[in-house]
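ugh ok fine here u go
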Amino acid sequence: MDAWDVSLDSPSAPALSRVLTEAPFVVHSTGMNVPRTAANAPARAKARGKNGAKNADKISDEAVRERIVAAAMHAFAEFGFHGTSIPEIAQAARVGVASIYRRFESKERLVNAVFRETKSRLRDALLLDLDLGGPPRATFMEIWARLVRFQRAEPLAFQFLEMQDHVPYLDGESRAVEGAVLKPIVLATRAAVADAPQAFPPAVLIAMVWGAFVGITKAERLGYLTVDDATLLRAGEVCFTAIASTLPNLEGE
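structure:
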């Protein structure tokens, strides 16, 4: 089995609770159905006040969490997991160290949360509404173009994902998210080379292409070269042409 053959199966989502829509009733966060009568108007007003406070607290908590995750991604991208401390992240996020530990039990939990959220954005950018059953050249170039757009839109996120060795600390949930990115591409590559028994293994082909993209963007980030979007897109054409030259069934598609 390929090392990248990660199962995409996930537990089915729980069934939604029945929602009451009858006019005389409203649904509060407590789950209680309260008739709309004048007699309970003060109770409803009090409930709204409590709910409003809870919602404000929830929004505030989410805002703090977002600041922590953003600061952590920046630090991990620049200095790596081992070169980053929780106090440094706290200072960058403008929160106390205790605020981080209330939300993430350890630095490992925090980096996994950052990885999952960032990798999920990459997954959506690459695969959302993508037809992996189309002609190989068109499919390859669409994925490459989407990768270019993601890297240009979120250079720090791409740096975090692709310039660090995450394997030692990734947990099962994070590996599943990574598999959700890799497996569809691996399967599409397998289908494309199915009639070419002498072809490189799909995982090798993907690693070659991925390495080319990462290498170009890393050299650009370090100032060794300047690459505009058009040149980066043409680099994708070169990669596909190089692969297709070893696979006669792909040439001319």
